[in-house]
Amino acid sequence: MEKGNEFTILIADRNPHVRAFLQREMMAEGYRVYLAKNGREVLEWIYHHGPLDLVVLDVDLPDADEIALLENLNDRIPLLPVVVHAFPTDFCPHATSLNKVSFVEKRGNSIEPLKKTVSALLKNMHYEEKEQT
Question: Three-state SS across 72-93?
Fold first, then answer.
């Protein structure tokens, strides 16, 4: 993806240091980035704020049931791609059966897999939109 503010993503993580780190890294890639610290804020963003292109979601959020939150995200129209960024022990594997849900394992040493997944999903989404027009 070319650097630039073409895409808007929401990063949801319970840890403020992780949120800030991911925000810095994704902004350096050229994305507009918004943050959420709990499930309520995620739902508020997806239903009541401006358009989002993708959500990076840690499923271990306060006040959120993982499956219910993912189903709410899956029910949004237009369909919103979700990258679950979590430790494998925190993630329910059958959640990837929902549309547009990808899993990237949290790692302390690199967020490159997360960046690559986000970029690939957004490129694919952009390509699909161009084909429809």
Answer: HHHHCCCCCCEEEEECHHHCCH
**How far is residue 28's CA from residue 47's CA, in Å, rounded to a whole number?**
26
Helix segments in the chain, DSSP class H: 16-28, 39-48, 66-75, 112-132
Token look-up 């292109």 returns 53
Q: Measure CA 125 to chain center.
A: 14
Query: What element of type H or E holds 12?
Result: strand 8-12
> Half-sphere exposure of 38 toward its Cβ, with a 13 Å CA cutoff?
4
Do residues 11 and 34 lie in contact, with contact meaning Cβ atoms separated by under 8 Å? yes
Which residues on neighbouring strands pair with residue 57, listed in sequence order? 12, 84
pLDDT tens-place string over residues 37-96: 999 999 999 888 878 999 999 988 988 887 788 888 878 767 889 999 988 766 665 555
Helix (H/G/I), strand (E/B), else coil: 65: coil
Cβ atoms of 31 and 8 within 8 Å: the answer is yes
